[in-house]
Amino acid sequence: MKAVQFSEHGRRDVLEYDDFDDPEIDRDEVLVDVKAGALNHLDVFTRMGLGALQRLDLEMPHIPGSDAAGVVEEVGDDVERLEPGDRVAVSAGLACGHCEFCRDGDPTICEDFQIIGEHVRGVHSELAAVPAENLVPVPEGVDWEIAAAAPLVFQTAWRMLVTRADLQPGESILVLGASGGVGHAAVQIADYIGAEVYATASTDEKLEYAADIGADHTINYDENDFAEAIDEATDDRGVDVVVDHIGKATWQNSLDSLAKGGRVVTCGATTGGNPETDINNIFWNQLEIYGSTMGTPGEVDDVLELVWEGEFEPRIRETLPMSEADRAHEIIEEREGFGKVVVIPDSEL
Fold it and tell me: What is the DSSP string of 16-72?
């Protein structure tokens, strides 16, 4: 088969689209004929060798990619709920299944939690071996690009807003980086819940997209200090919830944007994970900080059902052949456009 791959960490020029041994499936795995994959900022960090808590130690060559959709080609001996011909999408979180957190029903806090594409071989390839429990059914009529682009960002945003921050109808929320994958999913979910949605982006074009998918108020963060803009828009009250997946560059402003008793929820730190923090602000205003990673199987099912029904729409900023993976990574790194970047195996074009 052909696969996107790299044999060393580094810049985009380490990426190749070349021959790779066909995967062999274990008893609990499924062989998927990949029809489309999608990128996340996670793919850039993985290529660079940077994990959330430490540098990655990967078996090389490594195939990146946490998002993909396709058709079941073969199932392992212990797999019962899937069969050849089924349409499926990948949900990338891997859990041990037996630690205290898995037993309590929240594998996202698993002691050995890993992500397909980051810690183990990914799915940006013509064929992929995936544990059966990491595959979700895709109904007929759902485009492969949509099926590939939705799972990681929509489950992440759903858990952040619904489970962790417990966003309520009528509350106000600020979504940073609304043009990115998680950001544009969070805007739609917040609007669906019935919150008043503020969104930031770097260009007026991106802000128009954000308004189109549910943002009530938009802020160009290249032209305005977003914390000051929130103060002005809310008569110095602040918002109830801030979604911050940016990190170091925005953290203090995120805290400053909160109302008393407000909550900030984070799933990542694309500009760095060690910001300065005004602890006085946190305790005096009784702020709450929530971390969040991906979603539980139940959360994945809940949000993807709404995607398949058309309630939520993953916006596709560009679709490219996998042989142009370097360009796909560039779009993510340079924050070009709005929404997700999709890659298609060259053999499917």
Answer: EEEE-PPP---TTEEEEEEEEEE--HHHHHHHHTB-SSSB----SSB---SEEEEEE
* Close Cβ partners of 93 (under 8 Å, ≥ 6 residues apart): 107, 108, 113, 114, 115, 116, 134, 293, 294, 295
Query: Which pTM value belongs to this model?
Result: 0.96
Q: Give domain 154-291's CATH number out of 3.90.170.10, 3.30.1120.10, 3.20.20.60, 3.40.50.720.
A: 3.40.50.720
Q: Residues 191-235: pLDDT tens digits?
A: 999 999 999 999 999 999 999 999 999 999 999 999 999 999 999
Domain 2-150+314-348 CATH (choose: 3.90.180.10, 1.20.910.10, 3.50.50.60, 3.40.980.10)? 3.90.180.10
**Tokens standing for 51?**
């994990």
